[in-house]
Amino acid sequence: MSELGVVILAAGQGTRMRSKRQKILHEVGGRPMVAHVFAAATAVSHVPPVLVIGPSGGEAVRALLGEQALYVEQPEQLGTGHATKMARSVLRGRTQQVLVTYADMPLLRAGTMQKLATVQAETGVAVVMLSVIGDPKSSFGRVVRDGNGRVVEIVEVTDARRRPNATELLAIREQNAGIYCFDAEWLWNNLDQLPLHQARSGPEYYLTDLIEMAVGQGRGVEALVAEDPDECLGAGTRAELAVVEQAFRRRVNRYWLEQGVTLIDPATVYIDDTAQIGQDTIIWPNSYVQGQTVIGEDCVIGPNAIVRDARLGDGCIVTQAVVEKVELASGTQVMPFTVVRGED
Questions:
Q1: Residue 54 and residue 13 in contact, taking contact as beta carbons nearer than 8 Å
Q2: Residues 304, 4: Cα–Cα separation, whole Å
Q3: Contact yes or no for 32/241 (Cβ under 8 A)
């Protein structure tokens, strides 16, 4: 298997989020979005993942991830192609493959990253990309295939509207998810050939242009359709963040249902992915299990309960109460309208 490096594009300020914080620091499932992406990248990368950060806001990302990551700065916002190019100086010669993804896609699984890398290694194509079957109204770029089903290019929506066959292009449901695994040396050799586009926010180099370049050079492109469309969700606005949070919660709750935990109404139960819950525990509606919480077996949580950064032994009952930063012995019952809070 080829050695893999991962580049995480994290320079965008997310102005559409209308926040004092960079968008990738907004939380999903109790952790900043970039932390989810970084954890998945770390699981598959053979070298520390590379974070491409901007001239402002990067300090907060560094403070969050520390020395676990490598950092490069994109001094100007000149698009995804330019952002990826910033990582060349620290990755070139260190890996045979490079996977590029976004820091605001917290549902992307390590297994999906690995699948892209495996297909690229086995086929030897220049790039393997992740696509998704989406809404025709989506702003995602369209994946264009020829009559034999081979990928020939990705057309951004703004560019598609300028073409004579705009209606046909925009009707394509297979869309670009924005995650790619490249042959590393091919990537580094071709980034300088990207054309400059005039986008709405100014001049940009599109990473997607590498698809057409690879096809033109006879190197080939493979597109894998995402098995779980939720993995392709990104959050650039508060509304999109809410959609991502809901999808994340569905995933986590489904996992605990499969592990033998009863959720009376999964739609009203909020569980962080850092929590641990024992078999045959029952969680009633409007309950929150947050942070580094560990709940034993045969417990009853809720309704209307908050358990945060706490450890509960087997058979505990917490009803309409708050339990935070404490350890409860097995069989402990916390009375309604009670706050049990330990020291920080």
A1: yes
A2: 45
A3: no
Architecture of the domain spanning 4-232: Alpha-Beta Complex (3.90)
pTM of the model: 0.91
User: 277, 271 in Cβ contact below 8 A?
Assistant: yes
For residue range 61-73, what is the model confidence (pLDDT) as tens digits? Answer: 999 999 999 999 9
Give Cα 247 to chain centroid, integer Å. Answer: 12
Q: Is the peptide bond before 303 cis (omega within 30 degrees of 0)?
A: yes
CATH class of 259-341: mainly beta
Distance CA 323, CA 253 (A): 21
> H-helix or E-strand containing 240?
helix 238-258
177, amino acid identity: A
Q: What is 123-143 written as a DSSP string?
A: H--SEEEEEEE--TT--SPEE
Domain range list for the chain: 4-232, 259-341
Residue 56 CB: number of other CB atoms within 10 A? Answer: 10
Q: Summarize pLDDT for 239-260 with one digit per residue, the tens.
A: 999 999 999 999 999 999 999 9
Contact (Cβ atoms closer than 8 angstroms) between residue 90 and residue 147: no
In whole angstroms, give the CA distance from residue 110 to residue 298.
32
CB–CB of 128/184 below 8 Å?
A: no
Nearest to 296 by CA among 270, 323, 321: 323
Sequence-ordered list of residues with C-beta below 8 angstroms from that of 4, at least 6 positions apart, any chain: 44, 45, 46, 95, 96, 97, 98, 99, 117, 181
Per-residue exposure over 84-97, b if at least 16 CB sit within 10 Å of its own CB, e if not: bbbbbebbeeebbb
Spatial contact of 73 and 51, defined as CB atoms under 8 Å apart: no
State how far the Cα of 55 lies from the Cα of 81, in Å rounded to an integer. Answer: 17
Please identify which residue in the block is written with the tokens 């994290």: 10
CATH topology identical between 4-232 and 259-341: no
Contacts of 116 (CB under 8 A, 6+ apart): 99, 128, 129, 130, 179, 180, 181, 224
Torsion sign over Cα 173, 178, 184, 188: positive
Gap between the Cα atoms of 183 and 158, Å rounded: 28
